[in-house]
Specification:
about 450 residues; mainly alpha; about 80% helix
Length: about 450
């Protein structure tokens, strides 16, 4: 990566920096979502309804690992952004070297673990007998790519910590194109069914790794060399301390969703497929807040490193305003376009019907989860990773699961599944907002403007 790709976030107009930093992440996430829905689109249109149901039933199983990797990448990105903001290049190189080695080695270990735990995970998911073999075949191949996913997530956060978001966009576009082309080829030409889509996914992920590692290895002034690695277990510990709570939080969210999916799997294949499609589409409404939260995290981390807390506070405030405006726009668009979007996945009218119902019942909760993304990102960048984890677990795990589990016992109707998603999002957003604006911790660490000194909470 050329030196000019690195961007200091400690100076310049904050609003402009948020847009400049966020739009490549946003567009790259659109391609990532396209990447994620490609398997459903291909099997839904070219294989069978059972194949679509199998892939939909596997979504949250895959996300258990994906969210863990996201958290570890986030931890590395926070550390590197702080050292970059402080211009501490010795620790910057040490952190960079450690993150890359940890990603490659740790990814291989997690791949072996995921394959060994698969029978237990399948049992907990309560996957229906008529799609069990398809789901198992899909996951057996898909999870081989766990190592590649961790490596790419780590590299993407490293690039973000330097203010470089454009390369993530370029690589996401390439990866999505490779996934689509290979997916269609393997399914339509070679008749590999769900295995073909999973195989296309992991190949495209390895292509991303080659591109990102090549870029990170050649970062100007901090060149990575396997013969001169400055590896530190202390940095690994710090990455885990910052990243594991976020990864654990997201993993529990995925586990909770997997348990909710076990309730969903008791309904018909049309409902399973419709809800699976709806969840993917609802995720699109979160893209602006997730992208802007990436900018928030890097802005806050770099400016904490530079000891400019007034700029930290302004960064959070502007992020909330911009994120909320774009999130509301996405909610309206997706609500109105729900019938069209769901029908693109499968020509079965019942699938589109249930998918549309799910979207229009749950999409409102995205307004609240948008606030959670921004406030939690600011807290994590300042070193508080536990409270955001507790808030997310309580709202998106405990509240959502209890709502669905108890609700279905009282009133066995598919709408309980719809409203459970909205309820979990709403609770997480409200709690994150209350904590950020009323906690002594946020004022003590100067994330909010303060008029008096507070003792540590």
């Amino acid at each position: 990566m050329a030196k000019s790709n690195a961007v200091s976030l400690t100076e310049g107009n904050i609003t402009k920096l948020i847009f400049t930093f966020s739009w490549p992440i946003f567009v790259s996430m659109i391609f990532s979502e396209l990447y994620n829905i490609t398997n459903s689109l291909i099997v839904g249109n070219y294989v069978s309804l059972q194949a679509l149901s199998a892939v939909s039933a596997c979504t949250w199983i895959c996300n258990i690992f994906n969210y863990t990797f996201y958290g570890l990448g986030m931890g590395a990105g926070i550390i590197i952004a702080r050292y970059y903001g402080a211009k501490n290049f010795r620790m910057l190189k040490k952190s960079l070297d450690t993150a890359i080695v940890f990603a490659i080695g740790g990814g291989l270990i997690l791949t072996a673990i995921s394959e060994s735990l698969l029978p237990l995970i399948m049992k907990l998911s309560n996957i229906a007998p008529d799609i069990y073999d398809l789901a198992l075949s899909y996951l057996r191949v898909y999870l081989i790519g766990n190592s590649a996913v961790l490596t790419s997530q780590m590299c993407f956060f490293i690039l973000r910590s330097f203010g470089d978001t454009r390369h993530q966009l370029y690589f996401s576009i390439v990866s999505s194109i490779v996934n689509i082309v290979l997916g269609v080829l393997f399914v339509r030409v070679f008749n590999l069914s769900v295995v073909g889509t999973a195989l296309a996914t992991i190949i495209s992920q390895f292509v991303t790794d080659v591109l990102t590692l090549r870029l990170v290895f050649n970062y100007d002034g901090i060149n990575f060399n396997f013969r001169d690695i400055d590896f530190s277990f202390d940095v690994v510990k710090e990455i885990c301390e910052l990243g594991i709570p976020a990864g654990f939080q997201n993993m529990l969210i995925a586990l909770s969703s997997m348990m909710v999916q076990s309730h969903t799997n008791r309904f018909s294949n049309e409902i399973i497929s419709g809800i699976g499609i709806a969840e993917k589409i609802i995720n699109w409404a979160q893209l602006p807040s997730v992208a802007i939260s990436g900018a928030t995290m890097s802005l806050v981390a770099q400016n904490i490193g530079a000891d400019d807390y007034e700029r930290v506070q302004d960064s959070v405030s502007e992020s909330v305003k911009i994120s909320t405006a774009f999130t509301c726009f996405m909610i309206v668009v997706i609500y109105l376009a729900a019938p069209f979007l769901t029908s693109r996945f499968n020509d079965n009218p019942d699938v589109a019907f249930y998918g549309t119902q799910m979207i229009r019942s749950a999409i409102y909760g995205v307004f609240f989860i948008n606030l959670s993304h921004i406030y939690n990102a600011a807290c994590r960048a300042a070193g508080n990773v536990r409270t955001p984890m507790y808030i997310a677990i309580f709202g998106q795990v405990i509240c959502k699961y209890l709502f669905v589990d108890i609700g279905l016992r009282i009133f066995y109707d598919v709408h309980i599944l719809y409203y459970g998603t909205a309820f979990g999002y709403t609770m997480a957003g409200i709690l994150a907002t209350l904590y950020f604006h009323n906690s002594r911790w946020t004022r003590k660490h100067k994330l909010l403007k303060q008029k008096v000194d507070y003792e540590e909470s």
